[in-house]
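User: We ran a pulldown and think these components assemble together. Before we commit to crystallization trials, I'd like a predicted model of the whole complex to look at. Sequences follow.
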Amino acid sequence: MNRPELVCPAGTPSAMRTAVEAGADAVYCGFQNATNARNFPGLNFTVPELEKSVRHAHNGGTKVLLAVNTFPPAGKVDLWKEAVDTGAKLGVDAFIVADIGVADYIAKNYPDIRLHLSVQAAASTPEAIKFYCREFNIKRVVLPRILTVPEIKTMADEIPCEIETFIFGNHGLMVEGRCSLTNYITGLSTNMDGVCSPAAQIQYIKDDSGNLTTKLGEFTIDCFSCDENAGYPTICKGRYLTPAHDGAYYAFEEPISLNLSTLLPDLMAAGVTALKIEGRQRSRAYVKSVVTAYRKAVDNIMAGHNPEISDLLALTEGQKETQGAFKSKAWR
Amino acid sequence: MPPPPLFAIQPVLRRIVNRVATDNPDMFGRLGPHYNAHFVIDPVNLPFVLVLRPDPDDLLLDARQRNDIPPHDAKVSGSFLDLLMLVDGDLDGDALFFARDLTITGNTEAVVCLRNALDDIDGSIAENISDMFGPPGRAALGILRRAKQRNKSE
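Assistant: Here's a predicted model for the assembly, 486 residues in total across the polymer chains.
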């Protein structure tokens, strides 16, 4: 069994330093603009920050993967090319891409820099992945969170590139790169602007009894009673009233986080090359706890011991965790 | 019970906010257009609130009585220890929100910017502040940290 790469989130330079210190093999990050799928206010890196951070990460033996994984709208592709050119100049180890135009630009102009296919490309069949490998020399695919471990193993035998899977964080069951729910309500696109549920349009309203209503634009996403755990104010995690159901129900998915700690040995045996922790929008406290826990678990497995991962429930959305489709497609 | 006199802590708060700003000039870039927003920081188990305006050219950190809260753009409420651990990078704000231990009202984007700006500060803000007040400051921090530890293990 090969030692998998632990790929960790970095939303700020401080989070990146924390991840490096906690034992990340690779960190992924983005610039402060629409070229990446976590274009949140106050998050991400300026060019000078990334320059320093790449140096720091490399000194610690950690690779830096630059997410350029949104889809440029017509006429605006220069911003994506500029992000790629800058990343190449700063010495990033790989680009994470979803758009075929961006992938083509990198493959032609920077053939020596690795290309990883983002989960935003939603490539989930051997045929689609082989196409990306053939056309753009993709070295690694980040798989959507919809496949079981046996399906991932079969995939590993059929495709000519490495596999990266999410192991912790957002459950992400929408068809990634194609979700238009935020766009429908706010006019901003998750896929082109990099913004899912823009903070500027989120409202939290707490009543005198302690009940919390979360709204995106004019739409109520959920109403949590005072003793109920909360989730992110994203439409896909909303609880809605419809004539077809008695009471409010979760139309897409409930607030819950992925945690594959107990499936780690199976994933590693299935041929997964890299294990990804989601959460560039989270704090350095989250990065420290999750990366430390998974670093220890992976090292224990490699040494032939029990993973013994620490309890991460407090960091999960809604304080609930699942193995999702990785365990069984009947998860819900 | 009469409200506590706050005049004594105002100069201390001014020193604290000036020190954090001087030590971390880069943090203001993350505030974007919200650098001059007014934030109310509400430690729900204390008898007063704090008003913060993180404008590098016109910094403000002021204690106010609960019956004297000025107009503001956003409010962040939680227990004093949770807020301290949050600012110090020891706790995750999203996790506190999920557990309903942190409440945000008003301009959510301004709060997200402030959170990201503070989270990008390396090391311990609390330690730097306690150093400003010498041995009594460090002793006070020690007491708080022991309380934090008890809080974590509960």
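The radius of gyration of chain B is 15 Å. That may be worth checking against your pulldown data before setting up trials.

User: Thanks, that helps.
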